Amino acid sequence: MRGSVIGEEIIVNSTIASRTATIAGRVIFAGVFAMAMSFKFMDPNATAGYIASIGFPAPLLFAWLAAFFELGLVVCFLSGAFFREAAVAAGAYVVFLAISFHGPSHWAANQAEFGFFVDHFTFLAGLLFAAAHGPGDFAVKLNLAGLAQRRQPAHA
């Protein structure tokens, strides 16, 4: 590590630490969604029952859609492809889950639900930070903006 002193503040420049933290964050995001996904694939009926318990229609369909959506998130977080888009989509999904499954209507019956609700927003904060800073150096460099640019015809 190299460092320099500016006033009384020490600034440390460490690309190794930054790269390691970025990869670790990607693996953690992927791991969380992989665990959720695996439960859905192992027992979609249990997930459907949980979805039905809050009054959503077509619970088995939504269980399968959630499982495949989470699979896509895992692939994006591990590979880095479409990383920013996946982080934003995951953030929206996490907020949807917080409100639907742990929102204010659930707090009277079980005060622990408020903690689960708040936890989703700490996860959202990490996802937004990841979306802002990107997947780091070790990533497949694919994103929706790049695909749109490639599809535009060249101007003569």
- Please count the beta strands (DSSP E, at least 2 residues each): 2
Mean pLDDT comes to 89
**What is the overall number of helices?**
6
Physical arrangement of strands within the biggest beta sheet = 1-2
Report the end-to-end length measured between terminal Cα atoms.
49 Å
Helix content: 55-70%
Order of helices and strands: EEHHHHHH
Summed up, the domain count is: 1
Query: Radius of gyration, rounded?
Result: 20 Å
| Main pleated-sheet profile | 2 strands, antiparallel
Stretches where pLDDT falls below 50 for ≥5 residues? 7-12
Q: What coarse outline follows from CA principal-axis ratios?
A: globular
The percentage of residues in β strands lies in 5-15%
Polypeptide structure, described:
The structure is a single chain. The chain is mainly alpha-helical and 156 residues long. It has one domain. The chain has a two-stranded antiparallel sheet. It is globular, with a radius of gyration of 20 Å.
Helix-strand blueprint:
Elements: E1 2-6, E2 9-13, H1 15-42, H2 44-53, H3 59-79, H4 83-102, H5 112-133, H6 144-151
Antiparallel strand pairs: 1-2
Helix pairs in contact: 1-2, 1-3, 2-3, 3-4, 4-5
Compact description:
Helices cover 70% and strands 6% of the residues.
Keywords:
single chain, 156 residues, mainly alpha, two-stranded antiparallel ribbon, 70% helix, globular
